[in-house]
Amino acid sequence: MFISVEVIFAENQQQKTIQLSVPLSSCIAEVIRRSDILSDFPHIDLTKNKVGIFGKLRTLDSQVEEGDRIEIYRPLTTDPKKTRRNRAKKQNIL
């Protein structure tokens, strides 16, 4: 039995969504491998990039279910608090 899932990765200038059918007992790592998204984004390092399903962090060995959207997250380049502070300063809020 197969289920339908999608894998998504987004950068500033490019994003890609791949829909595919995988065996029912597949884990996130298998789905990412089957999607071949790593050939489009060879800099993705699954030992460093976090993954999730619908915005919730998961491990690579987590099972997927019908309709899941597997997301590969980029590493943070700046501290979110610092970014918000800088944005507020630019808007003269602080």
Give a description of the structure.
By secondary structure, the chain is an alpha+beta fold. It has one domain: Ubiquitin-like (UB roll) (Roll). 24% of the residues lie in helices and 30% in strands. The protein has three helices and five strands; from the N terminus they run E-E-H-H-E-E-E-H. A five-stranded mixed beta sheet has the order 2-1-5-3-4, with helices on one face. Strand 1 and strand 2 (15-23) form a beta hairpin. The protein is elongated and about 55 Å long. The protein starts with a strand and ends with a helix. It holds the Pfam family Ub-RnfH. InterPro entries: Mopterin_synth/thiamin_S_b, RnfH, RnfH_sf. This is UPF0125 protein CFE62_000225. Belongs to the UPF0125 (RnfH) family.
Rounded to an integer, what's the Rg over CA atoms?
16 Å
Unreliable stretches covering 5 or more consecutive residues: none
Q: What percentage of residues falls in helices of 4 or more residues?
A: 10-25%
Which strand order do you get reading across the main beta sheet?
2-1-5-3-4
The number of helical runs is 3
- Overall shape: it is elongated
InterPro entries: Mopterin_synth/thiamin_S_b (IPR016155), RnfH (IPR005346), RnfH_sf (IPR037021)
Family: Belongs to the UPF0125 (RnfH) family.
Organism: Candidatus Aquirickettsiella gammari
Protein name: UPF0125 protein CFE62_000225
